[in-house]
Amino acid sequence: MNSSEFTCIRKAQKEYQDIIRNYEELFQRSEIPLNEIGFFLDEIQCFWLKRIDIITFELDELVERQDCFLLCGAVYLNVSDCEHYYFKSMGKCHLLFDPFIKLEEVVRISESKADSSSIVNYYKKIYYDTVKILNDYQNYFYILPLRELSMENRDSQLDLLNKFFLKFLSGIFKMDIASKKEFDKNFNTFEEIEKALDPYTRKHLIFTDVDDSKISLREKIDRYSKVQMDFLEITKGCSESQIFYVATYSWVSQVVDILLRCVYLGVNPYIRFEVTFHYFALIMHTFIGDEYLRNIIEKSIIFYIFRKSVSVERLNKIEFSEYCSILKHKDILKDVQEKIKKQKINIFKGGVKRIANIINDELVQCLGES
Amino acid sequence: MDKNVSKLSHHKLHKKKGLIATPFNDGLRDQLSFSSWTQERMPDYLWLGLILMYYGRNEGLKRVAKIFSKITEDVKKIDFPRLSIILSANEEDKRSIFKIISENIDKHILSPLTVIYLPSDYPIFNEYFNVLQISVETRINQLSEAIKLYYFHQSHEATDLRFLAIYYQSLLRKMHFAKSTKESAEALEKYPNIEHSDENMRRYRPMIRCMEIVTFGDVNNTFNNHFWRKIGMMTSCNPVVIKFDENKDNYDNYFHCYRKIIKYLFSANKGKSFSDDKFSVIIGLINYALKIFYEINQNKLGNSILGRHGIRTIIEIFIMLKYLIKHEKERPNIWEEFKMYGIGKYKLVLLKAREKNIDESTHFIPPIVDVLVNEIKWEEFIDVDLKYFDDQNIRKKSEDVGEKELYDICYDYDSSFAHGLWGAIRESSMLHCDNPTHQYHSVPDTENNQRLPDVKSDCLKIMNKIFLFLTQIYEVPKNLKDELGVE
User: Fold this and answer.
1) Other CB atoms closer than 10 Å to residue B263's CB: what's the count?
2) pLDDT of residue A236
3) A35 interface with B at CB cutoff 8 Å
4) Which among B36, B202, B282, B402 is most buried, taking Cβ atoms within 10 Å?
């Protein structure tokens, strides 16, 4: 990338870093009142809003010229676990949602003290990860207000998400479900819901991780409510069918939302979390008829296979900057796609092992492994 | 429409200066200074606006009265209820004021202002009025709504704010009324207790506004600029496009008939074309005008800027044609002079071009111009006239031939487009942004959405006038006239 290009996005990264640095003292405190996190969010949001027009302009240019990936289904990159190596491995430009704003609703709706400590702790993790990215890897990733940039016509997007979800429910329960109320009328307990599902769906409807596939729906929901921030608060006073509805909706709508936003922004989603990818794979067949969507879904699958099949030790043995400079001259994604085509693998029907082998071969060549 | 503005005859013409001055400017130019409610004073009082907006006029005024009364009692150093002054007060005073305010209103009411006065710069204000649960987006929307409501300086709502400003002064006993201004004192006393629909308010409101301007004190430009810049940058433009319909009349037959008439005239008078300058100039002018109209129609330029360039030239041709005919008796050579005037202009460009390296891609092709310049006579015998043709500009020519009205309205208006003057730029290429937080600025129409009123019907009118004028000079057979359908 030419250094004179996308100057406003680059400048914004530096200015953003300055703002974040100003809050170092806040995040060092052992206890932080939520309203102080709120103040911090105000600063960040106003910071981005002031620059939104020029960032929109430059981002449009950026995605038009380069294959861009956006980290989806994760709040923050997690540099301490070397996730930056993976994310940088495919595509030419790598974008991150502003992680603080991504979690804004949790802060703004939360009032109970019990929850606030987990929110604050989570914010601390995000803070240090973001600081690390801005300090050490500013030239490799762009943190942008992508939620705000992909919010145009949000009402119609939400309407679409609801419609899609009801269609999804109707499909898995093999009955017409036109509304949340209607679903609630049909089922009372988790057991009744479980009984109405076919064995395949029962197994694949997971909420926390793949281990969910072996346990009952009640146990799945129980596990999920323990790990998901604010889930208990959101579903307080809800019937079991409503709780199921909320849990399933959150996953299905998340992946549809990922696709909608990525299409809107013109970027490819990089999904690394298995449950998100699981739902992504469950619904992808609805979208692959469209050539554009098929293309970005294919790239996402390849990238996910890369993430799952390559051990971190193979990557982090090299300095990150050196790894990036190797990748500058090698387009792993393009090469893998070409080989998949050559070997006539239908990625939407399987061939995961063969693709993992192709990726491995490419990486061996790329890293000069023997 | 009956607008309260001066007629042209009320303006004063300063011929030497080349200026038409309004009666206001003419009499008070040096004493006039402008003070904008919206830009310079409203940001200071918007916090009061948010209170009135939330509680409604009656309840809002009562609550603000309580707040003012307490502030004037407890915090004596605050001379005006202006936010710029409150925010720059010392910490103790600030806390006292914010405490008084928050004891009388819900804290979320002023929360929209926390997107302008951010926690890092205004921690105490945020401590009192920043509500975690209200998103930045909601706060910005509420603030935009308030700005829209209080934007117009003479609205009832803005006048309410302006009343509060002077009401505060009266509490501080800083307002003194002379006997002759008894009515102002009455307005101040009665204003909060009667509805805007009351007939008396028609007298009170202007008095209130007048008093507010006088008592405001120094404008804090830093505070205002900060306010407008912050809110403006955080909201999106809302450009309003005006799309006039395209005139979809079919002119194909009209062009066909007009061309046929020109062809007929040329064929019937072919002999004249060899040596009669009058004939070739008339045919040339008319065909040139017709070609412009045709290009406008063919390329759908009726609603465009170029359409205006085109109609302006057609009008100029019509005026010129009438002018040449009018003066041919006293100056039989006028037709040749007209040709040589135009060729002289070409020659000047050619001479300049010969002394410079011309970019090959430019649309000026010297060899072509060279041929044209030397077509009538050798260039060594062609002078260059630097003045207007016949030393008269088009305005004078239009007066001379009785077409001043056409000049005044259409030609002069379209000249703004030809010269790229701001009126034309604003109308055609800059869109009105309907976002009050942007102070209704204009934004470029980069997508070419704005469509101006179509010029084709005007083109048709002038071309018809030209035709009727032509029939007075040369005979056109009735069947061709009938086909064109111009009477």
Assistant:
1) 12
2) 85
3) yes
4) B282
Residue of B nearest to A111 (CA): B133
As beta bridge partners, residue A72 has A271
Lowest mean pLDDT among A79-93, A246-260, B245-259, B284-298: A246-260
Q: Are A65 and A114 in contact (CB under 8 A)?
A: no
Please tell me the distance from the alpha carbon of residue B154 to that of residue A58, in angstroms, as a whole number.
Answer: 41
Q: What is the pLDDT of residue A106?
A: 87
**Pairwise CB contact (< 8 Å): A42 & B233:** no
Q: Report the residue from B118, B135, B235 with minimal CB separation from A43.
A: B118
d(CA B315, CA B282): 15
Any residues with CB less than 8 A from the CB of A110 and at least 6 apart, and which? A34, A116, A119, A230, A233
Alpha-carbon distance of A122 to A128, in angstroms, equals 10
Q: Which amino acid is at A161?
A: L
Which residue is closest to B136 within chain A, CA to CA? A42
Output the pTM of the full model: 0.86
Whether the Cβ atoms of residue B241 and residue B428 lie closer than 8 Å to each other: no
At A355, the amino acid letter reads I
In chain B, residues with a C-beta closer than 8 Å to the C-beta of A38 are: 130, 132
Yes or no, beta carbons of A109 and B133 under 8 Å apart: yes
Burial of A41 (0-12, 13-18, 19+ CB in 10 A): buried
Q: Over 80: is that where the pLDDT of A246 sits?
A: yes
Average pLDDT over every residue of A328-332: 91
Q: How far apart are CA B84 and CA A9, in angstroms?
A: 33
Burial class (CB in 10 A: 0-12, 13-18, 19+), A125: middle
The number of residues in chain B equals 487
Contact flag A46-B234 (C-beta cutoff 8 Å): yes
Q: Which H or E run contains B19?
A: strand B19-21
CA dist., res. B264 & res. B475, Å (int): 10
Q: A285 is written with which tokens?
A: 């067949």
Cα–Cα distance, B349 to B339 (Å, whole number): 16
Q: Is the dihedral of CA A47, A50, A54, A59 positive or negative?
A: positive
Indicate if ipTM > 0.90. Answer: no
CA distance B435 to chain A (A): 15
Between CA A134 and CA A123 the distance in angstroms is: 16
Q: How far apart are CA A210 and CA B486, in angstroms?
A: 85
The mean pLDDT of B46-52, rounded to a whole number, is 98
pLDDT at A61 over 60: yes
